[in-house]
Amino acid sequence: MIKDSCTVADIINAFNNDLNDIYPPYEIKGFIRWSFQYVCGYSSIDLNIKRNEILENNKSDTLLTIINKLKSNQPIQYILDETEFYGLKFKVNENVLIPRPETEELVDWIINENKNQMACILDVGTGSGCIAIALNKNIESAIIIAIDVSEDALNLARENSKLNQVDIDFRRLNILDKKERESLPNIDIIVSNPPYVLEKEKQLMAKNVLDYEPHLALFVPDDDALLFYRNIIEFASDKLNPKGKIYFEINEEKGDEIRNLLSFNQFRNIVIKKDLRGKDRMIKAEKE
Description:
Number of domains: 2
């Protein structure tokens, strides 16, 4: 039972006691750290040395509200309206996917290979803008265009570009619409983490993803798993400059199919790259 006046230790105990049947201990520890940082500005060290400090009522109430939302499987990033990606802070909400570590690995691959190039980069399905913004911060000479079909997502991406002080050309555009994509200029590098989860795989997904993250950014029809890859590759065949590069995040089960699709469309130097967990999650190709 939480008292009217409670200490840091009381709230930490509430996190552990209320969430231990839902989340593993390491995840609860992360929730505690992020929540106290967000609400109180506490570091991990503060959590230890201030355990007996009495919290202001408004702060303890906010922390208890976070606990209740976590009990309903709401992602902590949406509860706090923010996350970190590639060392940068981003606002997130239910209009965009929560950036994943494997997407950071994709961004790192692109930066390491293209850091000193003057390139026009297109980010397809930008969502929160995390890929485009991270690339802009780390490839200084790049010109970046970022597109999405969702105006709500683009509005958030524009907020994130201001937050991180970068200048990106955000456009509402449906890459599946051939007429719309004709308006885009020639490109040197294309990057995309497109929807690739089959509708029939919904039942296998975690509740916090299925109930809260935008289905528009997740799912493709069961009979067309490569819908977005095929359309982006078709666009690249037309608008990617000679020797231009294309980078995708992929479903670990679809690497060979995407490789074959790229090869069929005259791309070369195709490389499938594993993420830190040993799964095939990225692919790169160059245009002949």
